[in-house]
Specification:
The complex is a heterodimer of chains A (about 270) and B (about 90). In chain A, about 35% of the residues lie in helices and about 20% in strands. Chain A has 10 helices and 10 strands. In chain A, the strands form 2 sheets. Chain A has an 8-stranded mixed beta sheet. In chain A, strands 4-5 form a two-stranded antiparallel sheet. In chain A, β9 and β10 form a beta hairpin. The longest helix of chain A is centred in the first third of the chain and has 20 residues. Chain B is mostly helical. Helices cover about 75% and strands about 0% of the residues of chain B. Chain B contains 7 helices and no strands. Chain B is globular, with a radius of gyration of 12 Å. The relative contact order of chain B is 0.16. The chains are: A alpha/beta (about 270), B mainly alpha (about 90). Chains A and B meet through loops of A and α1, α6 and α7 of B.
Chain lengths: ~270, ~90
C-alpha cells in the first residue's frame, strides 16, 4: 500500500495544558484545524501511524544520544509529564510492533538508526495523539529524533531518512500514515519564552509544502538557533515528512501565531 | 567545571523518582555521587536555576527541576533572565 496519510503539526504543551491562555480568536482558528486533521486521519483508516518527534530529555541523555530512534514496542506509556501540566491522563498507547520492526529493518539499509522497546511518550507525541485519536486506538510507530543535544543529525540526513522511510512504507501491505510533531520556531524554557519568528515559520512552511530540499536543508545550526530558537531544531521532524512525500500537493490547515502557546500554530497535510 | 555531571544529576532527578526521594532525604549524600565542584553541588542543593543556567545547564533540564523544587513558571523565567542580565553587566 502506498502511504495513506501524511501531515505535520505542532505539539507545544500549552495546547492541552493551558488552552484558555490563547485568545478566543486564536482558539477558534487553531482547534477546528486540528479537528479537520483528525477527520482526515480517521478517513484514512490507518493500521499504523508513524510519529516523528523530538527528544526532550525524556528517553535519552548525553550518555547515549541516538540521532534517530525507532520504537519497536507493543505499547508505550505516556505522557511522561505530570497530569496537571498537560491535562492528558496517563495511558498506554498501542505500538505497531511488527510494522515498526519491518520499517526499521528496511530503513537500516539506508540510514543508521537506533531502536528501543522501552520508549516513553512525552508531550511531543501525546499532545497530537490527544487531539487526533483521544481514545488512543491507532497503533503507533514512534521515531525520536535528536533535536536537542549537539551534534544533532544533519538536516540532509533527516531528508534522507524521510525518503528511505517512504520506500519502506510503500512496500508494506498495511495502511500506514506519517505525522511530524513539533516546531516551528520557539524558545522553550528560556527567558525569551513566548517569542515566535512568524516570518521564519512562514518561509519554512512554504518550503515544506513544496518539498524544496535545498531550501529546507540549508540552515546551519547557528542560523536555526538564532532565527528559530533552541526549539527550532525540531524542524527535523517536518523535513522527514516533506522528504517522504515528494511530489505530493501540500495544504496548510492552520497558520496562526499563538504566543500563549509559544509557537505559531502550524498544521499542514500532504495529499498522498 | 563539570557541566556533564550537573546535567546528569538534573536528568536523573527529573526522570527517576527513587533519585528524587534520596535527594529529598539527604541532598548532600545524593549529590556526593556525582563529580561536581563545590559550586555546582551548592547550586543544585539550593535549586539555584539562574546559576545552573549560567553554567550551561540545558533549559529543558532546568524547567522540570525548577517546577519540582516549587518554583512557579514566571519566577523560573525571571531567575534565568536575572542571571543572564547580571552576567552581561
Amino acid at each position: 500500500m502506498p502511504l495513506a496519510f501524511a501531515a505535520a503539526a505542532v505539539h507545544a504543551p500549552g495546547i492541552t495544558g493551558r488552552p484558555q491562555n490563547a485568545t478566543e480568536q486564536q482558539r477558534g482558528v487553531f482547534f477546528p484545524a486540528y479537528r479537520r486533521l483528525r477527520e482526515r486521519l480517521e478517513a484514512a483508516r490507518l493500521d499504523a501511524l508513524i510519529m516523528v518527534s523530538a527528544e526532550h530529555f525524556t528517553n535519552f541523555f548525553m550518555d547515549n544520544m541516538p540521532a534517530f530512534c525507532f520504537g519497536l514496542a507493543e505499547g508505550y506509556p505516556g505522557p511522561s509529564e505530570d497530569e496537571p501540566f498537560l491535562k492528558i491522563p496517563k495511558t498506554t498507547v498501542p505500538g505497531a510492533a511488527r510494522i515498526a520492526r519491518a520499517l526499521a529493518t528496511a530503513v537500516s539499509e539506508d540510514v543508521d538508526i537506533a531502536h528501543s522497546e522501552e520508549l516513553v511518550l512525552d508531550h511531543g507525541f501525546m499532545v497530537p495523539l490527544h487531539l487526533l485519536t483521544p481514545d488512543m486506538r491507532v497503533p503507533i510507530v514512534p521515531i525520536v529524533v535528536n533535536c536537542l543535544a549537539a551534534p544533532r543529525p544533519g538536516l540532509k540526513r533527516c531528508y534522507a531518512l524521510g525518503r528511505s522511510l517512504r520506500q519502506a512504507i510503500d512496500s508494506r501491505p498495511e495502511r500506514i500514515g506519517l505525522l511530524a510533531c513539533g516546531g516551528l520556531s520557539h524558545w522553550p524554557a528560556v527567558p525569551e519564552s513566548g517569542k515566535i519568528n512568524v516570518e521564519w515559520d512562514r518561509a519554512f512552511l512554504g518550503d515544506f509544502l513544496a518539498h524544496r530540499r535545498d531550501a529546507l536543508t540549508r540552515y546551519s545550526e547557528e542560523e536555526i538557533e538564532r532565527d528559530a530558537g533552541p526549539g527550532g531544531h525540531e524542524i527535523r521532524a517536518w523535513i522527514v515528512v516533506s522528504a517522504a512525500t515528494e511530489g505530493a500537493r501540500g495544504e496548510t490547515l492552520c497558520f496562526e501565531p499563538i504566543p500563549a502557546y509559544a509557537i505559531t500554530g502550524c498544521i499542514a497535510t500532504m495529499a498522498v | 567545571m563539570s557541566l556533564y555531571a550537573v546535567q546528569k544529576a538534573l536528568f536523573e532527578l527529573n526522570n527517576d523518582a527513587a533519585v528524587r526521594q534520596r535527594f529529598a532525604a539527604d541532598r548532600d549524600a545524593l549529590l556526593a555521587e556525582y563529580f561536581l565542584t563545590q559550586e555546582e553541588r551548592h547550586a543544585l542543593a539550593e535549586a539555584d536555576v539562574g546559576r545552573l543556567y549560567l553554567m550551561g545547564a540545558h533549559p529543558l533540564l532546568l524547567a522540570p527541576f525548577a517546577g519540582r523544587s516549587g518554583l512557579k513558571w514566571p519566577d523560573y523565567l525571571a531567575a534565568l533572565a536575572r542571571a543572564r542580565d547580571a552576567h552581561a553587566r
